[in-house]
TrEMBL record:
Alphabetical list of PANTHER family matching this protein: L,D-TRANSPEPTIDASE HI_1667-RELATED, L,D-TRANSPEPTIDASE YCBB-RELATED
Keywords: Hydrolase, Signal
Source domain of life: Bacteria
Signal sequence coordinates: 1-29
Residues covered by the Peptidoglycan binding-like domain: 57-111, 124-180
Protein name: Peptidoglycan-binding (PGRP) domain of peptidoglycan hydrolases-containing protein
Molecular functions (GO terms): hydrolase activity
Length: 185
C-alpha cells in the first residue's frame, strides 16, 4: 500500500469514528439517571420505623406478617401495643437481630424477605391481608381484607404498580411490597 493510500484509509477511519461519536446518543456517553419509580429507586426507599405507642397502616401490615410467622396472636391493628413490641422482639430473637422491639430497617427487611418472594393470584394468608390492608388503608384502593389473592386484588395491585412506576404484572414481589410499605406511589 502506498503512503497516500494509507493516509486516506486512516483519515477516512478517523472521520467515521468522529462522526460515530458525535452521532451517538447522550445516554451512551454517560449513564442516564434512573427514572422516578425505577426498581433501584424503590429498593433504596427506607423502611418506615415504628415503636410502641405509634400508629400507622404499616403497623397493621407488620402485625399481619408477624401473625403469618407465628409471632403474634392478637388482631392486626394500626396501634403499636406492648403485645406487638413483645412479638417484634420474639421475631428479632429468632432472626438473630438486636432485640429492641422496634420495626426498623433490619426488622422490616427480614420480615418482608420471608413473606415476599412473589405473592399472586390464588394465594391466601396473613401476608395477603398485609397487602390488602395497605392498598385499602394507605393507598385508597377499594379492596377488602379477606386474605385471599383474587382478581380484584390483582387488579388493585396492577393499578398501584402503574402509579408506582413498576411493571404492572399484578404480582407483589419485593419491589412492589417495598413501595406499598414505604410510600412509593
Amino acid at each position: 500500500m502506498t503512503h497516500s493510500r494509507t493516509t486516506t484509509v486512516l483519515a477516512s477511519g478517523a472521520i467515521a469514528f468522529a462522526l460515530g461519536l458525535t452521532g451517538a446518543p447522550a445516554a451512551l456517553a454517560e449513564e442516564a439517571p434512573a427514572p422516578m419509580g425505577s426498581s433501584a429507586e424503590l429498593r433504596a426507599l427506607p423502611w418506615p420505623e415504628y415503636k410502641e405507642g405509634d400508629s400507622a397502616p404499616q403497623i397493621a401490615a407488620a402485625s399481619h406478617l408477624l401473625r403469618w410467622t407465628g409471632h403474634y396472636k392478637e388482631k392486626a391493628d394500626e396501634k403499636f401495643t406492648k403485645e406487638l413490641t413483645a412479638a417484634v422482639k420474639a421475631f428479632q430473637a429468632d432472626r438473630h437481630l438486636p432485640e429492641d422491639g422496634v420495626l426498623g430497617q433490619e426488622t422490616w427487611g427480614r420480615l418482608s424477605g420471608g413473606a415476599f418472594g412473589e405473592v399472586s393470584l390464588g394465594m391466601s394468608g396473613e401476608h395477603v391481608k398485609a397487602i390488602q390492608y395497605l392498598l385499602a388503608h394507605l393507598h385508597g384502593a377499594e379492596v377488602s381484607v379477606t386474605g385471599t389473592y383474587d382478581e380484584a386484588l390483582r387488579d388493585a395491585v396492577r393499578e398501584f404498580q402503574k402509579s408506582a412506576g413498576v411493571a404492572a404484572d399484578g404480582i407483589v414481589g419485593p419491589i412492589t411490597w417495598r413501595a406499598l410499605v414505604s410510600g412509593g406511589a
